[in-house]
From TrEMBL:
SUPFAM superfamilies per the UniProt record, alphabetical: ACT-like (SSF55021), Formate/glycerate dehydrogenase catalytic domain-like (SSF52283), HAD-like (SSF56784), NAD(P)-binding Rossmann-fold domains (SSF51735)
This protein's name: D-3-phosphoglycerate dehydrogenase
GO molecular function: (S)-2-hydroxyglutarate dehydrogenase activity; NAD binding; phosphoglycerate dehydrogenase activity
Pathway(s) the chain acts in: Amino-acid biosynthesis; L-serine biosynthesis; L-serine from 3-phospho-D-glycerate: step 1/3
Amino acid sequence: MLTQTLNPTHIVIDFDSTFTKVEGLDELAMIALAAHEDREAIVQQIRELTDLGMNGEMPFAEGLRRRIALLSANRSHIDLLIDYLRTKVSESFLRNKAFITDNADHIYVVSSGFKEFIVPIVTELGVRAEHVFANEFLFDEEGNIIGVDENNVLASDGGKIKLLRTLNLVGDVYVIGDGYTDYELRESGLANRFYAFTENVNRPRVVEKADHVSGSLDEFLYDNKLSRSQSYPKSRIKVLLLENVHPAAKKAFEDEGFNVEFLKGALDEDELCERIRDVSIIGIRSKTQLTKKVLESANRLMAIGAFCIGTNQIDLETATERGVAVFNAPYSNTRSVVELAIGEMIMLIRNIVPKSNSMHQGIWDKSASGSYEVRGKKLGLVGYGNIGSQLSVVAEALGMEVYFYDVVDRLAIGNARKVNSMAELFGIADVISLHVDGRKDNTYIVGKEQFDQMKDGVIFMNLSRGHVVEIDALAAAIKSGKIAGAAVDVFPQEPKTNNEAFESELVGLDNVILTPHIGGSTEEAQENIGHYVPSKLLEYINNGSSYGSYNFPEVQLPKLGDSHRLLHVHANVPGVLAKLNSIFAKHNINITGQYLKTNETIGYVIADISKNYSEEFVRELKAVEGTIRFRMLY
Ligand SMILES: NC(=O)C1=CN([C@@H]2O[C@H](COP(=O)(O)OP(=O)(O)OC[C@H]3O[C@@H](n4cnc5c(N)ncnc54)[C@H](O)[C@@H]3O)[C@@H](O)[C@H]2O)C=CC1
Ligand SMILES: O=C(O)C(=O)COP(=O)(O)O
């Protein structure tokens, strides 16, 4: 902690666009001129003056006076501004309120803004009111702002320098700010270091002068080892989101301060190996193949988010061995797949696709031949998991008889009947729908032999995974008339992006609905997934909870109290826990909470400990044989 250092370090912080995300005076103008017909133009003029001053392109005092003249604001507007600014405090300052409060003796806010709105905001985060140095407004009797207190040094050119000189701070002085006047404190020799703060704005002219660039207050604290209450800064943790996941996901990570990269399409193996190198969290959908080679290139990867149900695109074994936690969205698009399957089976059994195609060619072919109701027909489901069983319920509501085959013993819902083999199911069903998962063993479970087992004129649907069905056998069965109609949503080879062409033997066949893997692609499902998966990933990263993980031992942890949390992932071999415990004992560590869960491959130990431990203790923990991954949360 700062207060413990012999030679105290003072931190001087700017307000506008540093402590808060916005420029107070610009926002005051927006509020004051709300009803003014030229509001946009006047506010724009004020912004330009602000920028000229911030970049050091106009004497500060002149810019300030000109801005005040344009304002037309009064006291009631300031109250509104304060309410607004409360919602605009920079995220990293909010995150570090405890640090600011604990080190209030050494933190100053020095700003060319105005005390009237700065003091209420910064004191709520722990800054002392008497450590705030800023301008003050002059008001007339009605409370209108008519000028600036000219006696305040901050109203003059070089005001921040003059002010800092009067403070006479003993020890190191670090300045954090986004503007040129903040840099000038360093240039004047009154401060030892200037940190350009870029969380909200990045002014190249200022950044180029800076000793250091801090993308957040976390980075500043971390780089200076100022406090043990500082984990690795989130703005340096890279999140790579592929395959156009919902924007809610991007926002969730950005709101937490992570460095997020967002791509619309998937990447191939070589591109991925390159891009994933320094990524800590990757978000994918069904297309991205996280192979052994890709995972071995991922030096920093902590977690994978599959923004879908299937996880067959991930080498789970390698991920687990490397201590990478995988999360997916097991229910979020279930309903979407079910609705599509229902719609398609009705379209197919009514022979609608050829009818519709003919109409588009101007052909009117009204007839009932080859068109049926689904009511009373037998639906055969292969795979009776979340999708299969929900489809079963909706299909029964439509009057279908449901039969299913699953490799595990699933409870039949409603009047659905379990059968003992796929062959038995295929002998019964009028409509067959596949809802198995994409494990390797399910490759080509439906081919010529299975099509031969089906009833003539069957409707066949695959909305599970492309490799489950032999496409040439399916095409042959359609052409021969064995299959009267088919719906296929998933293919052995699918384009990586919407710019690539789709090719398949199924193209052009009669009464066949082809869809581009959109079973789960509804606005509702994608938005649900966009919230659900990041929430799981963030719980894991921020708190260590692995609840809901697909491959990790699941632990749901309480919020971290006044302790530090050790997260230790190790190979599940005998003796690791004993070794960890002996290190705790040797260093006399006070454990306030301990949790352990294992699966076949790994063990996950979490220990909450009192904060007074040595670096040596941490080193020894990391060196325990079998350790796969170790991290700490503060
Ligand atoms: N088209 C699309 O956009 C979407 C496709 N899917 C696919 O659907 C699959 C199923 O999803 P859920 O029902 O949520 O998964 P789930 O895991 O709840 O159900 C899968 C069921 O299939 C069974 N199964 C696996 N192999 C089998 C086999 N050879 N024979 C019979 N049963 C077998 C399992 O025991 C399990 O009960 C996902 O794994 C995914 O691949 C999921 C969502 C969207
Ligand atoms: O949820 C699944 O497993 C799916 O197949 C949907 O995949 P997608 O997110 O559309 O790439």
